[in-house]
Write a structure and sequence with these properties.
Blueprint (H helix, E strand, L loop, with lengths): L7 H27 L2 H6 L9 H23 L4 H24 L6 H24 L1
């Protein structure tokens, strides 16, 4: 097996986290973009606390980040695009956690903490990959 400057273990971790987190983000981004407000409220979407149009834009931007990540996985030279997509999704989850805290939606914080921790690792992997692209 050929050695890469990035490392096989890091590449496998990057792909696994991208499939997991981008898949989740595609689902919730689509949901934020298209779901009725009552369903967003029922599912504790943080964007319910924003004006409707702004909440929909957040969903569209989440989908755009997922598209950027897909391109970056398929085109190694586009790793910086992956870094931007992962950073956007990570920042989005930090903002979501802040909104959940402000609105005392404590039941969401375990998921937020796990996703934010995974995003920190994920962004670091994309950063390292972008340095070797």
């Amino acid at each position: 097996m050929q050695k890469t400057p990035y490392g096989w273990a890091a590449l496998i971790a990057l792909v696994a986290l991208t499939v997991l987190l981008a898949g989740f983000s595609a689902f919730v981004g689509w949901h934020k973009t298209t779901a009725p407000l009552a369903l967003l409220r029922e599912n504790s979407a943080w964007t319910i606390h924003l004006p409707v149009a702004l909440g929909r834009i957040v969903g569209v931007l989440e989908l755009a980040a997922v598209a950027a990540l897909a391109i970056a996985l398929l085109v190694p030279r586009a790793a910086r695009l992956g870094l931007l997509g992962a950073a956007w999704i990570g920042a989005n989850h930090v903002v979501a956690a802040v909104f959940h805290i402000i609105h005392k939606e404590w039941h969401t914080l375990t998921q937020s903490g796990i996703v934010i921790a995974l995003c920190l690792v994920w962004v670091t992997l994309w950063y390292n990959r972008s340095r070797h692209a």
